[in-house]
Amino acid sequence: MKGLFASLGTVAALSACAWQSEALQMGEDTYQVSANASPARGGVTGAREMALTNANKKCDELKRQITVMDIKTEHAFPANGVATVTFTCK
To answer: In 3-state terms, what secondary structure has residue 71?
Structure first.
């Protein structure tokens, strides 16, 4: 029985995973960030929110205004959502 609870705990912990990348400079003022969120963390919507928050943070650090150029969303195995935001800070 202890093994079952340990396994369930591990599955629950893994299902609540999320990650995001640091801003990657693509050009002079152009950057890109990505985020991945499990269904428990909001899936595509959660990933989009994390990526946009990270993009805004980058421009705030530079004391510049953000302009979002593109947002791509997709699904990743097993049911995670992925968002990639391309933006400029001017």
So the answer is: strand
pLDDT tens digits, one per residue of 37-77: 999 999 999 999 999 999 999 999 999 999 999 999 999 98
Residue 12 has pLDDT above 60, yes or no: no
Q: Is residue 69 in a domain? A: yes
Q: 37 in a domain, yes or no? A: yes
- Residue 23 belongs to what domain range? 17-89
Cβ atoms < 10 Å from Cβ of 72: 13
> Is the pLDDT assigned to residue 8 strictly greater than 90?
no
| Number of domains the chain is built from | 1
Nearest Cα neighbor of 73 from 42, 47, 50, 53 is: 47
Radius of gyration of the chain (CA): 16
